[in-house]
């Protein structure tokens, strides 16, 4: 199995996530919960917990396993609070984070140059903060997948927002 396809297979139930291994056996493993099973492949993953100890959870609109932020960036509670990098998708990498940074820079510029247009954007943030860009994928309701997005859909959404903000900025300069 291609390692890059493993999150897909976990999300679709083809790979079973198990508890900690107590010991390996010649044909598989014994688990700390008393179960045992035979395996030809064991992939151990520690998972990932979001944790921002330097900011109160309510500022990030924290719900369940993760903050609910518009485009995984913008807080519906504070127009000047941005979270960078809280996004995961197969192949998104630095391109996705760069696109996030470009969008945040555009928002900050709009806040400086056209506060009323920036308020319109913030209204949209408040309305859509709980919207997940999953591209139709049915991600499991797991802590590790709480901030997963569909790469192509996410990059398209970022580009669409940047274009809209550029249009707002152009309208301001054409007055």
TrEMBL record:
Transmembrane segments: none annotated. Keywords: FAD, Flavoprotein, Oxidoreductase. The keyword Ubl conjugation does not apply. It holds the Pfam family FMO-like. InterPro entries: FAD/NAD-bd_sf, Flavin_mOase-like, FMO-like. Belongs to the FMO family. This is Monooxygenase. It comes from Pseudidiomarina fusca.
């Amino acid at each position: 199995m291609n390692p890059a396809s493993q999150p897909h297979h976990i999300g679709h139930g083809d790979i079973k996530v198990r508890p900690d291994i107590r010991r390996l056996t010649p044909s598989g493993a014994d688990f700390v919960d008393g179960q045992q099973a035979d395996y030809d492949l064991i992939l151990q993953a520690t998972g990932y917990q979001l944790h921002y100890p330097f900011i109160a959870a309510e500022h990030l609109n924290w719900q369940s396993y993760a903050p609910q932020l518009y485009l995984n960036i913008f807080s519906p509670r504070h127009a000047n609070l941005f979270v960078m990098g809280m996004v995961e998708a197969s192949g998104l990498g630095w391109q996705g984070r760069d696109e996030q940074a470009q969008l945040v820079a555009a928002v900050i510029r709009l806040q400086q140059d056209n506060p009323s247009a920036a308020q319109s954007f913030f209204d949209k943030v408040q309305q859509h903060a709980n919207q997940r860009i999953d591209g139709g994928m049915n991600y499991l309701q797991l802590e590790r997948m709480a901030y997963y997005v569909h790469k192509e859909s996410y990059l398209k959404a970022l580009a669409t927002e940047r274009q809209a903000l550029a249009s707002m900025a152009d309208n301001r300069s054409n007055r």
